[in-house]
């Protein structure tokens, strides 16, 4: 690894004298380093160096084309709005030879981002204000990219949020029963299969041109927002590897699935699992304010469905992986993926109980 880092540092030598390069953060996909370097003027600066995970992202060239296209566009829009593009969007540094990424002698792909000073990412909601700020930031991300032609972007993970595909994948896993676990999970299978009609809701509306295809982030967790240390404002959306064509409701829904659940994603005591309607409202308020009117009436009406769909879809993925033998998601105990699936399905069931309240919250916010 040291030889690789030396090779990479030489590719970015124009930055200056690299003083250190240490593992940084707790991301699960790419390998991230904090690189400290001294410029020719003697100033010490930081940058983020990442080795891209080409096992998950099979076409890193297309991925980087997406990131460069979106961040370049964001910079222009942020400048138009009088913002600070150095802090409000990621900035990819070129190699000494002018490329957007570097391929080392082993064939691994590397990239460098400017380090955003004076801001922090949080793994869990510490205050309601932080959750609101993350919603505001992701909504603003939607607003800034509202006119970007989504179809020009590559799918970095094909059919990532295609709920019908996830449903069909689960059925295939059940039929193949690779791990011999199907008999033990009949209740969970029944829950998933009973909601088949839900799997087609968004796909049908998209095919009928009743909802637009948008540029979406597709991983709208709190820790993908940088929050300013002084103002506590959400200032920059990060982790853009999954930026691709998608639906605004899914971005909203994934944040609710993760952030408005009263329990952890793998909670085994299902009595602790529920949708916190207060957090749902806080996030919806921030998201709609951040979107600045860029969503259609239909998209706004479908925000509760986005929350349900992302939770249902994730539950199916966990259940399928459990049946397959735990090949995709990392597990840390026996039946870990089954626990995750049960937790997601319990949250879906609670959303169904609170459906009218969720819809009323969205209507009330929309009419303010």
Would you give an account of this structure?
The chain is an alpha+beta fold and 368 residues long. It has 13 helices and eleven strands. Strands 1, 2, 3, 4, 5 and 6 form a six-stranded antiparallel sheet that branches. Strands 7-9-10 form a three-stranded antiparallel sheet. β2 (31-38) and β3 (44-51) form a beta hairpin. It is globular. The mean pLDDT is 94.
Helix and strand arrangement:
Layout lengths: L1 H10 L5 E7 L7 E8 L5 E8 L8 H21 L4 H4 L3 E2 L8 E2 L5 E6 L4 E2 L7 H17 L18 H14 L9 H8 L7 H7 L6 E3 L8 E4 L5 E4 L6 E3 L1 H12 L17 H15 L5 H5 L1 H22 L11 H18 L1 H12 L2
Helix pairs in contact: 4-8, 4-9, 5-11, 8-9, 8-11, 9-13, 11-12
How would you summarize this macromolecular structure in one to three sentences?
With 368 residues, the protein is an alpha+beta fold.
Notable traits:
alpha+beta; globular; six-stranded antiparallel sheet; 11 strands; 13 helices; three-stranded antiparallel sheet; 368 residues
Order of helices and strands: HEEEHHEEEEHHHHEEEEHHHHHH
Rg (C-alpha, Å)? 21 Å
| CA distance, first residue to last residue | 55 Å
Give the number of DSSP strands: 11
**Major pleated sheet:** 6 strands, antiparallel
Determine the strand fraction and express it as a percent band. Answer: 5-15%
Show unreliable segments: none
